[in-house]
Amino acid sequence: MNIKRIVRIALMTSILSVLSLISIPIGPVPITLQTLGVFLCGFILGPLDGGISVILYLMLGASGVPVFSGGTAGLKILIGPTGGYLLSFPIAAYISGYGADRLKKRMSIYAVGLLCIAVNYLIGVPYLAFIARLSIQKALTVGAYPFIIPDIIKMIVAANVSAKVRKIVLKR
After folding, report:
1. What is the pLDDT of residues 86-97, one digit of tens each?
2. What is the mean pLDDT of residues 78-102?
3. Architecture of domain 3-169
């Protein structure tokens, strides 16, 4: 791994960490800019490096660095109600990066982004239901429905920003 690649991964981990600090609590799952950061990691760096940057973010947070939503940290967050969403982030970064590497049409990238949002909910909602002892319907009500439109907006913003940034960042 060369120094440019390490710096790009570290930079995107830092951007994700800063975006995660912006948090609006509305229940067990807050509104954050984490998903915007995850999309940026994948769309800009590609599947492998995007996934690595998000895994690095999770490792920082798990080890006690306050990078999770609202400046929280620790393993307790990963095993708490929002842990499933966090654990889905490397998968979403990988999928979005894969799409960015292989698809050039913006609408195709949007479709990949929607798949990533679905993966986030398919992992996060059942995890929330299990940990918080909620029905799936209640978990959907507090952990998915309020976030669908904001997540789609964040994905579209990330796709549009990354289309321009990716050419500069990945210039060899």
Report:
1. 999 999 999 999
2. 95
3. Orthogonal Bundle (1.10)
